[in-house]
Write a structure and sequence with these properties.
Layout: H1 8-24, E1 30-36, E2 42-52, E3 63-65, E4 68-73, H2 77-84, E5 87-94, E6 99-110, E7 126-128, H3 141-150, H4 158-168, H5 171-175, E8 190-191, E9 198-199, H6 204-213, E10 214-228, E11 232-235
Antiparallel strand pairs: 1-2, 1-5, 2-4, 3-7, 4-10, 5-6, 6-10, 8-9, 10-11
Helix pairs in contact: 3-4
Flavin mononucleotide is lined by residues 30, 43, 45-48, 70-73, 76-78.
Length: 237
């Protein structure tokens, strides 16, 4: 298996994030993402940075990438704005160390209906990692689903990744993606042993509705400017 090069900016971002989560908790994952409205005015809002596509902080997926991930609902304005203009800048301020990462790039929207071939330009940012997942270790439901969907394909299967993210997203967060009625929790009990699809017979319809609204925003990073009180501004890409 090929190994993904670990760019300096990714290494620094990961170590700063770890340090800031230790100091100030998960609020260190909040950042602001900018888009451009149809009338050319800027729009900025807070999102949770979900880490790197195809990776997990506690579980080896067998893949690694330099692509940053945000999860959103298809009804949010940013989805339409990104379709219209995929350029973005993310401002990620980490309070614990007073560091700022300004990350520029373009965003792909991965929703229910997507064309895998239109995502080929992302392949150079993803690779099978050298440390493949251990067949004997206990896999989360999300990873079990991913492995079923991904199978042995050479390139990352984006449906497999979208499913993995949905399953690990959490019951309350999934419930927010149901719009037809008020739901507080949306648990997934099991995954189909053949297809890897999520199941909970009692609420399957609501789960499918939430999955329809579930969107991955994938950021291909083209510039990184890091600022810290001790080093000032440093361009890292
Ligand atoms: C701490 C915090 C975290 C948030 N995380 C997300 C997120 O991960 N994804 C998201 O779509 N919205 C998130 N939001 C809500 C957005 O800031 C925004 O209000 C919403 O996405 C609608 O914005 P839009 O219509 O301009 O896209 C978060 C808000 C806060 C305050």
């Amino acid at each position: 298996m090929s190994t993904v090069a670990l760019p300096a900016w990714k290494k620094l971002l990961q170590s700063s994030l770890q340090e800031n989560i230790a100091k100030s908790g998960t609020s260190a994952t909040y950042a602001s993402i900018a888009t451009v409205r149809k009338d050319n005015t800027p729009a900025v809002r807070t999102v949770v940075m979900r880490g790197f596509v195809a990776e997990h902080h506690t579980e080896e997926t067998g893949w690694a990438s330099d692509l940053l991930l945000v999860i959103t609902d298809k009804t949010s304005d940013k989805v339409e704005e990104i379709r219209n203009n995929p350029h973005t800048e993310i401002n990620w301020y980490m309070n614990g160390t007073m560091e700022q990462f300004r990350i520029g790039g373009t965003v792909d929207v991965i929703e229910k209906e997507f064309d895998q071939s239109k995502l080929d330009h992302l392949n150079s940012s993803i690779a099978a990692s050298s440390s493949a997942n251990d067949a004997k270790s206990q896999k989360s439901l999300a990873l079990q689903s991913f492995c079923k969907q991904q199978q042995t394909q050479q390139a990352l299967n984006w449906q497999a990744e979208r499913l993995r993210q949905f399953i690990q997203f959490g019951s309350t967060m999934r419930a927010n993606m149901v719009h037809s009625k008020q739901v507080n929790q949306l648990d997934i009990n099991e995954i189909d042993p053949v297809s890897g699809w999520f199941h909970n017979d009692q609420i399957q319809g609501l789960l499918e509705e939430a999955y329809d609204n579930f969107v991955l925003l994938v950021l291909k990073v083209t510039s990184v400017r890091h600022w810290s009180p001790s080093t000032g501004t440093k361009s890292m890409l």
